[in-house]
## 1
Amino acid sequence: MRASDKRLLADIPADQEDPLSYAVSLRDRSVIAMVEQAVRHNQVLLAFQPVVTTGQANRIAFYEGLVRVLDETGRIIPAKEFIDPIEATETGRVIDCLALEKGLRTLARHADLRLAINMSARSIGYGRWMRILKRGIDAHPTVAERLILEITESSAMVVPELVVSFMHDLQKRGISFALDDFGAGFTSFRYLKDFYFDILKIDGQFIRGIARDADNQVLTGALATIGRQFDMVTVAESVERAEDSAYLSAIGIDCLQGYYYGAPTVRPIWLQTAEERSSA
């Protein structure tokens, strides 16, 4: 059967090369439409996950505010399900704006809170995002020093020179920066030397099961050494088991984040009633 006949049978447009590419394209369009609808109906929220100081599980170093959207059924959809298709789109910039806005509002309302908010390097040149940031840190004098902006390794390498300049300007205002998912991408070590990130978050693929995985032990040790060399606080992501936590503590990782210490929640402790806190 000719390729053109196969396309007709599968209802694939002529400009699509193969069924897989077409299926991926359809899925991405569906995801983008779902996020656009959530934005239109103000169904975007943050889920908060604690990052604890190693060896002191009850001492929370900061929280990460993870963006979530609600689909048409009201289900909470985590960022990993939609962030890649929207990353380079206008919708991606709007989601960054809403996440930042909600994060800044949370910081303004809770003076003892330190909070990390994710952003794409593409939002640096987005006027609305920059206005939200400036307005938020100007309105409340302590917000900047309690705000951490997380930029993924892959995003930072899209426009590294712009990221370096952006970080330099805002660090003077007291804002901290975290390099997220470190090890998952291909950071140029020349740029890593110039970035001056305050926090380095080691990607979870190297952390899960590390207590029993010699390869991940070597890789995580190397990534942690890089962090220490550049005076960055090291955070291990996706810590899910006690033995992994103990191993990471033993090799000197500064902070730990993952389900072992708490799942992301849209009802963090500062929003819970006394009854909810006592029953937790």
## 2
Amino acid sequence: MKTPLTGILPVAPTPFHDDGRVDEDGMRRVLDCIIDQGVDAICILANYSEQFLLSDEERATLMRISLEHVAGRVPVIVTISHFHTGIVVERAKSAQALGASMVMMMPPYHGVGLVPGEAGIYEHFQAVSDAIDIPIMVQDAPLSGCQLSVPLLVRMARELENVSYFKMEMPFAADKLAALIEAGGDHIVGPFDGEEAATLLADLDAGCTGTMTSGLQCEHIGVIIRSYMAGDKDAALAQWTRCLPLINHENRQCGLRATKVVMKEGGVIGSDHVRHPLKPMSARTRDRLLYLAGEMDLIALKWGK
């Protein structure tokens, strides 16, 4: 990418049939619906895509289908996280070969008790950077149980050619974003936040240039970023305030199930199935989600009707 990627980069959910099989046609419809929300890029095979519940074969199929179907309409970011460096390198090569614009990866971890030291983490990212020619986004999230210090992140940005984007989604993310941007300077090409934009205003104040949310209400969250970047911070705050009830309900009550529930209701996909051991959301939580989605008149809630 010649121009740094900014804006809203949502994670696409992976649709399944009611019996748990991957819904390939549904995947295509999910991508079309998200593009129609006016996004700047799409991320696939992330944690909110249930990547940890996909077989290697399913993962390869979904990557091929997604990149072929999007066909350059927006950049596609492929998540390649795995504990084994060799597998991450092969996933990165495959993603680039199929046309991915970027890869995203977490540090290697297998539960909080099995995390390599900083040297191993650096070498993990170094191996991928050496193997591909597209940008790498570092996903810094509490899920890994891995503490990525600002000095380590800055070192990777300075020394590893393709490590230039960072998704920060931890408590006090704004402070870490600000410290990263100050220490890394021009090497920090794309500082992003996550967690459904729950802290987006503070993170924009800290210098982030976009967010990676779910695919639920991208058309509304995108307005926040565009308003802020245009210098209209009052409009950004007003829009963020409008989005907050749904942001909060998704982030704290629904998790990755929210987009699938709304997309099923909106005729985008035929099932909101999540794979075991995940469980469907309660009727109470679902009812509140659909009420809030209706109040926001979401594209996803009417796209397939």
